[in-house]
Amino acid sequence: MSVPAFRPVLDQLPGYRATEGVYDGEPARPLSANESPDEPLPGVLAAVTAAGALAHRYPDPLCTALTRALARRHGVPEEAVLAGAGSVALLQALMTACARPGAEVVFPWRSFELYPPLAQLAGLRPVPVPLADHRNDLDAMADRITSDTRLVLVCNPNNPTGTVVGERALRAFLDRVPPDCQVVLDEAYFEYVRTPDTCSGLTLLGAYPNLAVTRTFSKAYGLAALRVGYLVGAPDVVEALAKVRLAYSVSGVAQEAALASLALEERLRARVDDTVAERTRMRTALLAAGFGVPESHSNFLWLPLGDDAAAFGRHCTAERIAVRTYDGEGVRVSVGSPGDNDAFLACAAAWPSAVY
Ligand code: PMP
């Protein structure tokens, strides 16, 4: 039912999918949302508890301490950093900031499923550009830029395929983007990258004033429930987006947990190393079982099953394993705890037609 007072575009938007974590009241093995399998470190929990005691007060709307710590962590000025309620809030702020009549946003597809609805909500025309060999096709994306393109998103590593774009290709692409068009590298999974074949946009910011990078505490830092992410970019971009960001949207608990996580970086890095090792183990087993899984540089693997994706997804559901199914395309499975990963591998090995 549409609401007469509302914009018709809302009728076209899909609602966000319910979490795939519970079936018939029974918890499933949670391999659908690319979360960290590890519980928060004790130091993070202590920070959460301490910040919770101040729940009757508004948090610092400017996220001052967190912004400072992030600036130090990345060797950039504080004016270049903006925290938000998850990196998705910053993507939404970017879209809102760029939206004007006729404006377009170019992004890879298949990629993060919220790019199209965020664009439509903001009133931007979505221009999805198909992947090539499971990668963001930067040449094709550059070809699609017009005088109406205000924003270009690059997802590196790409969700759901886990691939990265090469550094040379990235630089050549950035050289082709006009200066009045904002480029955003969505690096939600960059902490899992272990290949020299790509580079973070953080190392390119000086060369490209129209470039910004988004990152998140939801994945490698294990704070998905607390909703905190950040953007690094030119100070004038940060200043403008700070006006779009909802005041007080990053809770005090989230700010303190993120700060504590930055102080525990070594231990979190060791956890990420474990995930990377599990990723290799899973991919090796899946390749041996006949699945053509592209090399992943993130905390998930992509099974390009085509027309069999839905049936494979149901097969996993029957085994109480939550994965993300993309009908007609493939299935994405997160790298979880070793036990959950073993269960998934057993389930995949039992798939009758495991030859792709
Ligand atoms: N970008 C990508 C590519 C993602 O996969 C996600 C979450 N799945 C996000 C951004 C948003 O993450 P968050 O809002 O939790 O920071």
Automatic annotation (TrEMBL):
<dbReference type="InterPro" id="IPR015421">
    <property type="entry name" value="PyrdxlP-dep_Trfase_major"/>
</dbReference>
<dbReference type="GO" id="GO:0004400">
    <property type="term" value="F:histidinol-phosphate transaminase activity"/>
</dbReference>
<keyword id="KW-0808">Transferase</keyword>
<keyword id="KW-0368">Histidine biosynthesis</keyword>
<keyword id="KW-0028">Amino-acid biosynthesis</keyword>
<dbReference type="InterPro" id="IPR004839">
    <property type="entry name" value="Aminotransferase_I/II_large"/>
</dbReference>
<dbReference type="Pfam" id="PF00155">
    <property type="entry name" value="Aminotran_1_2"/>
</dbReference>
<dbReference type="GO" id="GO:0000105">
    <property type="term" value="P:L-histidine biosynthetic process"/>
</dbReference>
<comment type="subunit">
    <text>Homodimer.</text>
</comment>
<dbReference type="InterPro" id="IPR024892">
    <property type="entry name" value="ArAT"/>
</dbReference>
<protein>
    <recommendedName>
        <fullName>Histidinol-phosphate aminotransferase</fullName>
        <ecNumber>2.6.1.9</ecNumber>
    </recommendedName>
</protein>
<comment type="similarity">
    <text>Belongs to the class-II pyridoxal-phosphate-dependent aminotransferase family. Histidinol-phosphate aminotransferase subfamily.</text>
</comment>
<feature type="modified residue" description="N6-(pyridoxal phosphate)lysine">
    <location>
        <position position="219"/>
    </location>
</feature>
<dbReference type="InterPro" id="IPR050106">
    <property type="entry name" value="HistidinolP_aminotransfase"/>
</dbReference>
<feature type="domain" description="Aminotransferase class I/classII large">
    <location>
        <begin position="31"/>
        <end position="343"/>
    </location>
</feature>
<dbReference type="GO" id="GO:0030170">
    <property type="term" value="F:pyridoxal phosphate binding"/>
</dbReference>
<comment type="pathway">
    <text>Amino-acid biosynthesis; L-histidine biosynthesis; L-histidine from 5-phospho-alpha-D-ribose 1-diphosphate: step 7/9.</text>
</comment>
<dbReference type="InterPro" id="IPR001917">
    <property type="entry name" value="Aminotrans_II_pyridoxalP_BS"/>
</dbReference>
<dbReference type="InterPro" id="IPR015424">
    <property type="entry name" value="PyrdxlP-dep_Trfase"/>
</dbReference>
<dbReference type="InterPro" id="IPR015422">
    <property type="entry name" value="PyrdxlP-dep_Trfase_small"/>
</dbReference>
<keyword id="KW-0032">Aminotransferase</keyword>
<dbReference type="InterPro" id="IPR005861">
    <property type="entry name" value="HisP_aminotrans"/>
</dbReference>
<keyword id="KW-0663">Pyridoxal phosphate</keyword>
